[in-house]
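Retry 2 of 3 after timeout on previous attempt. Resubmitting structure tokens to design endpoint.
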């Protein structure tokens, strides 16, 4: 039996999403193969081995369950004989590579991309520059620095509505849809609450299409899987944080309502992006598809959600895998 550590929480705006992801992973682990060691990280960055009820993670009561908490550090995972870690945190601290760097420093294998690849993918401006170099089509955009100065000539090339987003953030946190020039400055101020660097991106009219990439070891064989394409209908002005996790107004369609030829191109492109960014293990790759089926890359997420409404597991389960098999494939690959 392997010792599997599942890490959740952390100093991230996506703390609550992480709790939901970790809870679902813990509940679906094959306990005949893995002994689970939940490790929670507080909002201020303290690590704890948590041995209490899983339900307390869901409700964020785990940190007040003193009798089931033991303060630890990343190095203590070695003393706990941890074989592999599944990072179940989202946003800053995990998706930006900080957590992965700590695990790399103590030599413990973990699910997902390296610290370097994670940092690249979390940084939208860096990812966009890489995509430009590869000739992969994206929405027109400009990058706004710390001083919030916008080059008027560059802005003039964009057409409203625009989307203003932090360069490094997930779960659509800090994103605003801007329809007029008067709304632009407040949107930049909101985005800079989460990152000094901001992206201003032209809105694209089209379908929101996602695919799941999975690498690992499935039933004792190495696998590299790109899922069927799925489509998100936000049910709101855009697919924001509230739509994803609170209002739950979005609907999901697998397969997406696109031609087989377009689907094949998206799946090939997703694997090309995954490989060129140095990713491993897992990622969700998001695209826009216009009415005439032009394919436009949106973003890549190296620690996609595993909540009940998350697209990543939905896409792979549509292909015939169980939730538990997805987890096991990733853990064995790591």
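Retry 2 succeeded. Sequence:
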């Amino acid at each position: 039996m392997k010792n599997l550590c599942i890490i959740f929480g952390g100093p991230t705006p996506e703390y609550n999403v992480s709790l939901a992801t970790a809870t679902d992973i813990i509940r679906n682990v094959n306990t005949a193969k893995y002994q689970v060691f939940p490790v929670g990280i507080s909002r201020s960055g303290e690590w704890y081995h948590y041995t209490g009820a899983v339900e307390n993670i869901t409700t964020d009561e785990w940190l007040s369950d003193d009798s089931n908490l033991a303060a630890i550090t990343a190095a203590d995972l070695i003393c706990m004989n941890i074989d592999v870690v599944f990072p179940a945190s989202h946003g800053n601290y995990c998706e930006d590579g900080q957590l992965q760097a700590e695990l790399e420093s103590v030599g413990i294998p973990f699910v997902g991309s390296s610290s370097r690849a994670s940092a690249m993918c979390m940084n939208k401006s860096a990812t966009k520059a890489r995509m430009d170099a590869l000739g992969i089509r994206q929405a027109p955009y400009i990058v706004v620095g710390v001083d919030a100065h916008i080059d008027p000539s560059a802005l003039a090339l964009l057409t409203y509505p625009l989307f203003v987003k932090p360069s490094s953030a997930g779960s659509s946190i800090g994103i605003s849809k801007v329809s007029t020039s008067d709304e632009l400055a407040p949107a930049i101020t909101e985005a800079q609450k989460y990152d000094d660097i901001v992206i201003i991106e032209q809105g694209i009219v089209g379908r929101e299409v996602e695919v799941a990439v999975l690498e690992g070891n499935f039933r004792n064989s190495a696998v590299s899987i790109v899922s069927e394409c799925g489509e998100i209908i936000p049910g709101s002005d855009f697919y924001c944080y509230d739509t994803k996790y609170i209002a739950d107004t979005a609907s999901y369609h697998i397969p997406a309502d696109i031609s087989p030829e377009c689907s094949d191109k998206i799946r090939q492109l997703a694997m090309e992006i995954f490989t060129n960014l140095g990713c491993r293990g897992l990622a969700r790759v998001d695209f826009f598809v216009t009415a005439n089926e032009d394919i436009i890359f949106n973003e890549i997420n190296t620690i996609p959600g595993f909540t009940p409404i998350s697209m990543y597991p939905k896409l792979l389960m549509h292909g015939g895998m169980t939730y538990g098999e997805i987890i096991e494939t990733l853990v064995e690959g790591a």
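Attempt log closed. The chain has a mean pLDDT of 92.
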